[in-house]
Structures are given as C-alpha cells and as structure tokens.
Amino acid sequence: VRAFGVQSNHLLSLFTEGGTELDDKKTARDAGVVPGMLLVLRQSTVKGGV
Amino acid sequence: VSTVRLPWAVLDGSFGQLRECGAGRAECVLYRCASLDEPDLLTRAVHPGHRAGYGGYEVDSAWVTQFFLDLRRARETVRVQVHTHPGEAGHSWTDDQFYLVSAAGFLSLVIPGFAAGPAGLGGTALVRMQPDGTWAPGDPEETFRVE
Q: Is the Cβ of B97 closer than 8 Å to some Cβ of chain A?
C-alpha cells in the first residue's frame, strides 16, 4: 500500500483485470499472480448513504 | 490547499444526472475526473453503474475495476466523489469507510435533498482525505472555483 502512495485501509483489495478479487489469505502464487500481470488496487466495496 | 476549477457545464450536468437518476426518491453518485496533466481542472463527471435506494447506494464492483483500468489508459484521475443525501448534506460513517479513492487530497462532496435544489455549492458538505487516511471538513466555496 505504501509503495502506491495510497492511504492504508483494511478495505483495500487487489483485483484482476477481469474483476476477480484476490483472496488475501492466499499467497500470490496460489492466487494465480504471475510476473507482468496487471492488478487493480481498490476498495473492495464502494458505497455510501445516510 | 489548491483550488479545483469546476466548469459550470460539469457542475450543471452533475445536478441533471443526479436528479434524473435519483428521481427524488433515491441517492445517486458520480465521479468528477481530471487529466493527470492538469489535475486541478475537472473535465467531466462519470455516472457509475450502481443500485440505490432512499438512504444509500452501492457501486457495481465490476464497474469500479473497469473504470480504474479506463482511467489508467486515458491518463485521468478522479478528484471528487459526489453523491446525494435525501435530507441535509453530511458525510456519514458509511461515506467515510466505503469511498472510491484512497489518496490524500481526494474530495467527497455531499449534496442535500437529492440535488433537487438549484445547481451550485449551497448546502453541500465537503470533506478532504488527509495523509493519514482520515477525513477533514472542507469549505466547498473555497475549494471549488466555478467557471
């Protein structure tokens, strides 16, 4: 998280280009991450309300 | 803190979109974007795929991922999250936790009354993300320069 200059937040997750959220209990290898793969670091859920 | 330039067309279009989608009975959300080369000039408002009701909204997860990929390709960034509340404007606990962008300087603007009032900054509530990830209140009139 620090490497990307974003604020630390327990709700952040990594997603594949296809929109699949990586399981943070798995290692990168077990999650299917390979060198050169594009991942999106984003909030797991985006919502709002009163 | 730098001033963010907000073209009238983006402001007015935002109100139109929020009113049309929410139809006076549901919250709505959109994201005001800027080029990475000129981040203090808002250029467009993007209306996400989402579902909403009287007291809240949730953005489609697949839409968020694709949106971030599109922003990367276009060299754009989201500077401001804008959403409506049914009554008075304010940043709720849910708003504090489940925003779109985790970056210092990110702005979140709440518009009261489902944006049924005149397009402008009156009655809105603004917060700005701090370097430690917390939110601090901001003054919409001082933060945005409508032009």
A: yes
pTM (two decimals): 0.94
Closest CA to B22 of B44, B60, B53: B53
Q: A33 - beta bridge partners?
A: none
**Chain A residues inside the 8 Å CB shell of B99:** 43, 46, 48
| CB-nearest partner of B85 from A7, A47, A50 | A50
Out of A6, A17, A50, closest to residue B103 by CB: A6
CA separation for the pair B79, B77 (Å, rounded) = 6
How does pLDDT run across B42-77, given as a tens digit for each residue? Answer: 999 999 999 999 999 999 999 999 999 999 999 999
- Whether the CB-CB separation of A48 and B98 falls below 8 Å is answered with yes
| The pLDDT of residue A5 | 65
CB B2 within 8 A of CB B40: yes
Question: Are B55 and B95 in contact, with CB atoms under 8 Å apart?
Answer: no
Report the complex ipTM: 0.93
Q: Which two tokens stand for residue B51?
A: 């579902």
Amino acid occupying residue B79: R
> What are the phi and psi torsion angles at B18 (to 5°)?
-65, -40
Residue B45 three-state SS: strand
Question: Between residues 16 and 75 of chain B, which touch chain A (CB distance below 8 Å)?
Answer: 27, 29, 55-59, 61-62, 64-66, 68-69
B133 at A interface, C-beta within 8 A? yes
